[in-house]
Amino acid sequence: SAEQTTEPRAQSFDVNDLLEVTKYGRYQYKVMIVMGIMSFADSAEIWLATIIINDLVCEWDLNITKKALIPAVVYFFYAAGSVSSGKIADTFGRYPILLVNSYLLVVSAVLSGVAWNYYMFIFCRSLTGFCIGGNYGTSIVYCTEMVPVEYRSWSILFLNACWVAGSLYECVTAYFVMHLKYDWRIQVLLTALPCLVMLILMHFMDESPRYLTISDRKDEAMTVVEKMCSENGVEVPEGELVCSDVRNGEFTEIWSKPRTLGSCIISAHHFVNMLATFGLIMLIADMTAKGYCGTNTLYPTTRRNSHGCLVYTRWQYVYLAVIAALFAPGMVLGTLLAEKIGRTRTFMVTVYGSTVGFGLMLICITWSVTFLVIAASIVFVTMYNTVLWIYTPEFYPTYMRSTAVGVQNGIGKFGAATGTFLVTYIDGVYNVRYAIGMFLVFLVPLCALVCLMDKETRGERLVDGREQDPLVDHDAMDTSE
Q1: What is the dihedral of CA 349, 321, 124, 305, to 10 degrees?
Q2: DSSP characters for 169-193?
Q3: Under a CB-based contact definition with an 8 Å cutoff, are residues 242 and 251 in contact?
Q4: Rounded to the nearest 5 degrees, what angle is found at the Cα of 266, between the Cα atoms of 249 and 248?
Q5: Cβ neighbours of residue 414 closer than 8 Å, sequence gap 6 or more
Q6: Whether the Cβ atoms of residue 183 and residue 56 lie closer than 8 Å to each other
Q7: N vs C: which end of the chain shows fewer Cβ within 10 Å?
Q8: pTM exceeds 0.70, yes or no
């Protein structure tokens, strides 16, 4: 037989291999700190509406519809920003859209503090919502793509912890500023301060190497790889970094076969969870203000601002801070459960727990029992939100991840807008119990839908290109090519 000679095959590595070598080092810590400050700033801006809404209603003599639009408009534009920024991030990269949104967020946040009338304020908050929406989903994708598989859920936990810290920052500053100065404009400007810090730090970030590899930008990808290895104190893996020119995912692919059922269930989860989470924040504020189930025995409920209108007392700000702090144990428990029993089983536990919690709110016994029920509901809803944000970026491959996460986040914030508007309107026209019943209308059907989730992502490597995607029909793809 003829002698055959074969050339040695060049060793190659992908981003998953790279992250197994670099582990969780200095580079990842830097990424998490900057993205954590972004989450902190987003949370403070979200909680701002709850803090200052009564002062705005008083100063501008707003009716119930205009009052309901103050928090709702932020979420509506949050949804628009999330969807559009997600698609742009898959087309032009994660870093550019994060940087542009950060600039716009600082401008809109500062302008909100100098708005001279209701319509100017609504415009500024709309732009703020658009920028927060674009940043939040993209930052989740960015962090997920930058850390090893065993640290993904813990990275999301850190971002959520920063979100809690941002809400506490808002409550603590309001305790002093709103109570002593009675000036919502100072509160708005203090809320914008973390946005400015975030903008400065964003200039020290790099593009996601996963995005660069699927965009066939090998030189840029290797620059980031070398920087990551250098900062983490490890050698660059031998061989060639695997890159490819992958067509970006389209909106229609999110729900196309065979992802149709999984994506539809994820969409339902995002809508209902955000409706419950942010609607509950608004509901708690109204419950304490109206003394639902005797909660007004906790503190005096009468305080007037410089315009002579009733606004929150100092103790009500403390109460809101306690409620904000209750999000922390839910985040920890949600992460632990997701790692221990898996993502899909954690969905079942948290959805059922949230439904029971809202149901028990209808039963008014004493203020102490009501507070415990509210606390338990917050923990379950937060556990639910935590596993949802761990699962969603893991479910989709890199070539469509930012688009899909942006769309799902947008659907979620449409749910938040719906929830905050309905809570404010229903509680204003009817009473607190009707508002609680609204949550159950959405949660009960989800208890059946959650049983259909069957794709477990715990411990799995992230999929990058179409050639790695197990849900793609590779024979059809080869034929089309």
Answers
A1: 140
A2: HHHHHHHHIIIII--HHHHHHHHHH
A3: no
A4: 5
A5: 75, 76, 79, 271, 274
A6: no
A7: N
A8: yes
